[in-house]
Amino acid sequence: MQMKPSAYIFDQQAYDPEQIRERVRGIIEKDGLAVKGKSVFLKPSFVYPARPPLNRGVNTQPEFVGGVAKALQDLGASRVWVGEDCLVGPSQAAFVAMGVLPYLRGIAEPVYFQDEERVEVKVKDALIESSFSLPKKLMDADLFISLPKIKVNMYATVTLSVKNHIGFLLAADRLTNHHYNIHKKIADLYRARVPDFVIADAVKAGEGQGPMHAEPAPLGVVLAARNGMAADVAACRLMGYDPNEVEHLKLLHEKGIGPLDLAEVEVDNPALLEQRARRLIRPRTDFADYHHSMRFFIGTELACPQGCVGMIRGTLDRWWQVRRWKPVKGLNFIVGKPIAEVPDNLKKGKTFVIGDCAEPYRDRGAFIPGCPIPPMALTYALAAKLITGPLASRVRDLAWGSIAHAFNIPVR
Question: pTM for this structure?
């Protein structure tokens, strides 16, 4: 009889790196994962380069990463790498802005994906993409441990251990199939390098307009598992999702990668899981809650929440969060296809045509091509018209990260 994969959940109310160190060490020892003498690659999620507490609901927190790295050092890891990229600026900007580097000194080495050597990895029986360019250190490491932030995601339903893989890809590769095919892409990418262990940050989970603008939801737990699917199924229960709502989990289950039902997972401390579980606020991808002066002309057959529609919402949500509508009042957005009707009287200087599907309207305003458009493209287009949004990042963090990347200055 095949044993159920185990998932561990433990109480963790604060981002205390020493507590996290002790408890993570205990979980790894309890599971029996052999760490001594091995190189370990850690992949957190640094979606948006902002310092705590502004990003508590968005990114895997620096104290969390530091605590895990120390636990691995205690367990005799020969080498620990921590790798991630950045959506705003070079990879170094994420590490500087996150304030994570002091937690890694003498313990782990930062790996800046934008500068890292890559290897092509093939995926058997692919759904949509049969190969990926992945960091060489990831593939060379004896162990890969995923450190996702548990949060909702307007593009991919949730961000858990499976979705965390998207961060391995550089921008050009990340955007391929980042639309109605995104779940197939995620399922293929996950199989290119399945994690050996997952330790998920839900001390404060993320709810609302995730991934970029998730608000902190204090669940006060850490979730871990050797099987990533087991971790994600338990995480779904924690955040009020049915795993069947998450298409990439269904696809991987069909491939035999792991369970899709919590009954198929041996949860250590199930009472705590049930106690902390609650329905997180889910992201909106419509625009009915935006300022009434803003107009959206959306295709009736193809307008992807996972792509261009999500990129619009993800860009404008910062104004929505702080209710600073004045800079964006009266703007028009054309996206998707076919579009029933676009009025002739739209002001060209206040109109943005988003994505390849809407290209027939490119002369009606500022056209941003792509399928989907790049994550920051609309932000830059707005800035070109002197419409700048409230930033959660510190400019000096982004600047220092950019200088370090440009001049190959070590940032540690």
Answer: 0.95
